[in-house]
Design brief:
Length: 345
């Protein structure tokens, strides 16, 4: 039998996104739907209602994640999960997060109206507090699910009014069973708005993400000597800020020629004592870099560690400490390949 080619109903998806944008709609057409607020509850309730209409089985886990399941042909196969988050930041966009959940809902609707049973179960998932705008950190519930965060610590996190995550979760009535947590999946798919400007520059409407970039972050401390800004001759100074700027300029010129796909940021810098009449005796700054290839990240680290040697340190001492790093995570190759084929890339 020839495989049926199913197409979703774009107009319906668009309308659904607009409907969900009513929960916490802002004046300029965005949404403020912080996690576990009344607006979030309304969006969740409506999502559950839509899934029930499709006769999906809706379950909630102990972190408030929602799973709507459509039966598959082979119940022994781990589910195909499509999902994202219905919570938003303050004055967020109406597509961020919602698109990923509602795209899943649209897939379920399309399957249902065409009487197609997916080969494996289909789960449409709403992940609690991905944004972390009300309760830090972001990706909280997915972090607990994947064992990165401790559940009790996360439940105790407070919003600015002093309400804990656990209390807020109880308040909106979305505390479920730990057994409902997802444990395995054939694939997890998330469609998300691009958080950068590249698609627009390339005049593309869609792309397929291959990996989550590896990254490394260093903190560099430059120590000199504080002296009077008026009475200390220039050749007798150990100015930590001048030494730091030498390093920053050097780092930039070295890193920018390393690889065109490398991105690097020196996003935090503090000078001490930060008084206009005193020569800075200490400067602390960070340098973080991201790239897919671990070999490039390795080269970045070599450059950072060589900085004290290759830049004029003005008589100051320099230390560089790695704060943290993360390996590149490659997404499932066969999913990436199939998606690329589907969107003609
Ligand atoms: Zn998002």
């Amino acid at each position: 039998m020839e495989k049926q080619k199913l197409l979703i109903n774009g107009e319906r998806l668009k309308n659904t996104i607009e409907e969900f944008a009513n929960f916490g709609r802002t004046e300029r057409g965005g949404v403020t739907r912080l996690a576990l607020t009344e607006e979030d509850r309304l969006a969740r309730d409506y999502f559950c209602k839509c899934c029930h209409e499709l006769e999906m089985i809706v379950k909630v886990d102990d972190m408030g994640n929602i799973y709507a399941t459509m039966e598959g042909v082979d119940p022994s196969k781990p589910p195909i999960v499509i999902g994202s988050h219905l919570d938003s930041v303050k004055k967020g966009g109406r597509f961020d997060g919602a698109l990923g959940v509602l795209a899943g809902l649209e897939v379920a609707r399309t399957l249902k109206e065409n009487n197609v049973k997916p080969s494996a179960q289909l789960v449409v998932m709403n992940i609690t507090n991905e944004e972390g705008a009300r309760f830090e950190p972001s990706m909280m519930a997915s972090g607990v699910l994947s064992g990165k965060f401790d559940k009790d610590k996360m439940l105790a996190k407070k919003d600015t009014d002093g309400l804990t995550f656990e209390e807020a979760l109880n308040k909106i009535g979305y505390v479920g069973e730990i057994e409902a947590r997802i444990k395995e999946a054939t694939a997890f798919l998330e469609i998300h708005i691009e958080q950068g400007p590249i698609l627009e520059r390339e005049n593309l409407s869609v792309a397929v993400v291959e990996s989550v970039l590896g990254m490394v972050c260093y903190e560099i401390v430059v120590t000199g000597e504080s002296d009077h800004a008026g009475t200390t001759p220039m050749d007798m100074r150990k100015d930590a800020l001048f030494a730091a700027t030498n390093m920053i300029v050097k780092a930039r010129s070295k890193l920018r020629t390393l690889d065109s796909a490398l991105v690097f940021t020196m996003g935090r810098i503090n000078a001490f004592p930060n008084i206009h009449t005193v020569i800075p005796n200490k400067v602390v700054f960070t340098l973080e870099a991201r790239h897919k290839d671990p070999a490039i990240i390795q080269k970045v680290e070599e450059i950072i560690l060589a900085l004290p040697e290759i830049s004029d340190h003005e008589g100051c001492t320099i230390t560089a400490e790695k704060l943290w790093d993360r390996q590149t995570v490659f997404l499932m190759k066969n999913c990436v390949t199939r998606l690329r084929r589907l969107v003609n890339l």
